[in-house]
């Protein structure tokens, strides 16, 4: 159930929206697409789903091209939310479920389970236009996963939700992944990717900046972060070998070092000064990696 | 196929269950029942009652002459002598021998118009023979006085077809010979088609546009090919319109079964002629094909827009062309139904469904133009659906407005 994207490009009227993307989404993994507005996330998703034809490159799912013969295995939550405003929740879900090859009965049973889970069983026979934005979003997520898809593509699933609902949705997404679904989602929130994903792809202006397993990316990135907290003056560390950057916030100093081998000499230097409350070597954050690759924050 | 059915049944059921559908259907069914009982309804408001007897008072010779003349008119009214009493359904005619004669009609109720004119006609005749007598004219002179003018029409046909000229001349009265039943079929077809097009064009346009503007379309086209989806929608809307049509036909049939139509039929002279069967078959074919063509075009126009506010503007061509087609058909019914405008416009796809039933009414038209019309419509429908599907496929994800931008997109993709 692997999704492979090879050398994928798309341009509109001479403007390149996606520029030679190359990545592999392993079966059963949770894969994050990270990027700002106009990075090419939605265009990439639409090409994966076959809604847009790539200008160049190929996309295969289990070695085959994605077409309408496999769409029943795919769930998609578009970035631009929208449902038939005049339909009742159950009518809308039944219709979208049937488009995914489910029977009315199957949809009804599943719908009850999901509404219960999202804590909105009372919305079942309400018209969609009567629901709040957050509740509409829950209904749309239900619509995109009700048929137990093997591949789920969620475009900005958490945007516009309050923290409580973000947590409910995150738990649901994690459960689906645990049950074996491959999940691809996009976001511009680094922490969501760090929390949920094993792998990621960072896009910037249509170009793939980094992609792969997050742990590997971090260890390959090499740079580490050291946090030192204590009463002593450690300004001299700035000139130590391997130190790229140093920031001081009151009694806390944050050092960026080229790789972990430079951590030990630094440790040996500061213990000579006496007691320190904290000496911690951290993995770089995705944000750090992004900044170092792109030159600015997301 | 199951996805086609899912979209089809969802659209069909939601439309048929809609209040607007039920109310509009109910209103028309009510109108059909009212129409079927039109003569009875008029009867309720018409306080005049039929006369059964006219009693005559005055000069006996004149009275006898009135009786002879009046009986010759073969009305249901009998003529008798005045016996001094005036009952229900009776009128008293008093003749005074003045110059000209004075007639007074007395009755306790209003006299229906047609009976009144019968009486007046008979009295006029009586007066005229009295005048002839008083002038002492010879029977020949009297005959000459009564002679009707001999009028011959010599009117050149607009199309200049010698055969047609002959046909017009042989009819002699200068008006096309229109069978009333065929005319009713024609009117019903054209009016029903026009109203269904206007009503359902905006409905299918709204359906497509609402899906597009609410962005639910992205979820839909990730499950079902856009072309299948669009075709299911068009088919569903056509089925909804045909359901409504079927309800009307059932109502008409029920009205025929329930109510006595013989008066209505005899009053309007609704009798089939040789052309009626052809007329009904072609009208039905053109009605169905016309609906499919216009609804496919409306679906395409609906997919052009990205904001609901632009819908009416986008559907303007549908309204315009159907209105023009409708008027060409209606206004040429009483003229020469086969003039150049009718002939040319009957081959223009958007006018064909309206104008061809008019030509089908005329037996001079023959089968060929009617079959060509069907062929033109079939080709146009195929073309419209192909264009609608291409536009739809490429415009569902676009938020750009404007027909030309979207057409350009079709060409590019």
Helix content of chain B: 55-70%
User: What fold name goes in the CATH topology slot of the largest domain in chain A?
Assistant: Rossmann fold
How many β-strands of chain A, per DSSP? Answer: 14
Order of helices and strands of chain A: EEEHEEEHHHEHEHEEHEEEHEH
* Number of helices in the DSSP assignment of chain A: 9
Strand order of the largest sheet of chain A: 6-7-8-3-9-10
The CATH superfamily of the largest domain in chain A is known as: P-loop containing nucleotide triphosphate hydrolases
Dominant shape of chain B: elongated
How can the largest sheet of chain A be summarized? 6 strands, mixed
Report the largest inter-chain contact: A-B, 30 and 23 residues
Total beta strands of chain B: 4
- Counting helices, strands and paired strands, the structural category of chain B is mainly alpha
Number of contiguous helices of chain B: 18
**Distance between the amino and carboxyl termini of chain B:** 26 Å
CATH architectural arrangement of the largest domain in chain A: 3-Layer(aba) Sandwich
Your description of this structure?
- The complex is a heterodimer of chains A (298) and B (413).
- Chain A has 298 residues and is an alpha/beta fold.
- Chain A folds into two domains: 216 residues, Rossmann fold (3-Layer(aba) Sandwich); 64 residues, YebC, transcriptional regulation domain (Alpha-Beta Plaits, 2-Layer Sandwich).
- Helix content of chain A is 32%, strand content 29%.
- In chain A, the strands form three sheets. Chain A has a six-stranded mixed β-sheet, sandwiched between helices. Chain A has a four-stranded antiparallel β-sheet with strand order 2-1-4-5, covered by helices on one side.
- In chain A, a hairpin with a 2-residue loop joins strand 12 and strand 13.
- In chain A, helix 2 runs parallel beside helix 4.
- Chain A starts with a strand and ends with a helix.
- Chain B folds into two domains: 275 residues, no CATH class; 94 residues, D-Maltodextrin-Binding Protein, domain 2 (3-Layer(aba) Sandwich), CATH 3.40.190.
- In chain B, 67% of the residues lie in helices and 5% in strands.
- Chain B has a four-stranded mixed β-sheet with strand order 2-1-3-4, covered by helices on one side.
- In chain B, strand 1, helix 4 and strand 2 form a beta-alpha-beta unit.
- Chain B starts with a helix and ends with a helix.
- Classes of the chains: A alpha/beta (298), B mainly alpha (413).
- At the A-B interface, strand 6, helix 2 and helix 4 of A face helix 1, helix 8 and helix 9 of B.
């Amino acid at each position: 159930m692997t999704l492979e994207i090879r050398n994928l490009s798309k341009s509109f009227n001479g403007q390149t929206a996606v520029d030679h993307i190359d990545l592999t989404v392993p079966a059963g993994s949770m894969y994050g697409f990270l990027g700002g507005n106009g990075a090419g996330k939605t265009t990439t998703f639409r090409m994966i789903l076959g809604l847009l034809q790539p200008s160049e490159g190929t996309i295969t799912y289990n070695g085959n091209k994605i077409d309408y013969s496999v769409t029943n295995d795919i769930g998609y939550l578009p970035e631009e939310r929208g449902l038939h405003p005049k339909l009742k929740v159950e009518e809308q879900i039944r219709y979208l479920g049937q488009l995914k090859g489910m029977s009315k009965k199957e949809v009804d049973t599943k719908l009850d389970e999901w509404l219960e889970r999202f804590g909105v069983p009372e919305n079942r026979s309400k018209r969609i236009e009567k629901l709040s934005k957050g509740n509409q979003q829950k209904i749309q997520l239900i619509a995109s996963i009700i048929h137990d898809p093997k591949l789920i593509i969620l475009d900005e699933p958490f945007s516009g939700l309050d923290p409580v609902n973000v947590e409910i949705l995150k738990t649901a997404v994690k459960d689906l992944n645990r049950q074996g679904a491959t999940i691809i989602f996009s976001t511009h929130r680094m922490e969501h990717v760090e929390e949920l994903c094993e792998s990621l792809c960072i896009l910037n202006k249509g170009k793939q900046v980094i992609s792969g397993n997050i742990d590997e990316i971090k260890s390959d990135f090499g740079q580490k972060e050291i946090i030192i907290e204590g009463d002593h003056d450690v300004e001299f560390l700035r000139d130590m070998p391997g130190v790229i950057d140093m920031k001081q916030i009151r009694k806390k100093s944050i050092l960026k070092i080229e790789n972990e081998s430079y951590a030990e000499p630094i440790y040996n230097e500061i213990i000579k000064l006496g007691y320190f409350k904290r000496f911690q070597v951290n993995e770089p954050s995705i944000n750090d990696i992004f900044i170092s690759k792109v030159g600015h924050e997301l | 196929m199951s996805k086609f059915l899912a979209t089809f049944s969802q659209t069909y059921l939601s439309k048929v269950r809609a209040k607007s559908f039920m109310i509009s259907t109910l209103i028309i069914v009510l109108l059909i029942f009212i129409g079927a009982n039109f003569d009875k309804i008029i009867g309720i408001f018409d306080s005049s009652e039929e006369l059964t007897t006219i009693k005559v008072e005055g000069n006996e010779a004149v009275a006898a002459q009135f009786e002879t003349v009046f009986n010759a008119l073969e009305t249901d009214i009998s003529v008798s002598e005045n016996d001094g009493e005036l009952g229900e359904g009776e009128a008293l005619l008093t003749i005074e021998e003045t110059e000209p004669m004075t007639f007074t009609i007395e009755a306790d109720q209003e006299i229906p118009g047609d009976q009144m004119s019968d009486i007046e006609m008979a009295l006029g005749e009586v007066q005229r023979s009295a005048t002839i007598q008083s002038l002492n004219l010879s029977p020949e002179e009297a005959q000459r006085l009564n002679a009707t003018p001999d009028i011959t029409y010599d009117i050149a046909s607009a199309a200049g077809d010698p055969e047609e000229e002959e046909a017009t001349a042989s009819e002699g009265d200068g008006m096309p010979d229109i069978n009333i039943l065929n005319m009713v079929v024609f009117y019903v077809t054209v009016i029903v088609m026009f109203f269904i097009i206007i009503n359902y064009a905006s409905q299918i346009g709204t359906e497509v546009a609402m899906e597009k503007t609410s962005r639910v379309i992205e979820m839909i086209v990730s499950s079902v090919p856009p072309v299948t989806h669009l075709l299911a929608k068009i088919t569903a809307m056509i089925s909804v319109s045909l359901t409504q049509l079927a309800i009307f036909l059932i109502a008409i049939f029920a009205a025929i079964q329930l109510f006595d139509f013989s008066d209505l039929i005899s009053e309007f002279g609704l009798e089939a002629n040789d052309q009626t069967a052809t007329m009904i078959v072609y009208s039905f074919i053109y009605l169905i094909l016309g609906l499919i063509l216009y609804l496919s075009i409306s679906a395409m126009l609906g997919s052009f827009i990205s904001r609901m506010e632009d819908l009416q503007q986008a559907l303007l061509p549908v309204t315009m062309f159907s209105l023009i087609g409708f008027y060409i058909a209606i206004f040429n019914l009483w003229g020469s139904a086969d003039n150049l405008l009718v002939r040319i416009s009957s081959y223009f796809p958007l006018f064909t469904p309206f104008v061809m039933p008019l030509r089908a009414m005329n037996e001079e038209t023959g089968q060929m133009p009617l079959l060509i019309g069907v062929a033109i419509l079939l080709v146009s429908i195929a073309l419209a659906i192909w264009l609608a599907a291409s536009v739809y496929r490429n415009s569902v994800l676009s938020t750009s407005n404007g027909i030309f931008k979207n057409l350009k997109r079709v060409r590019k993709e």
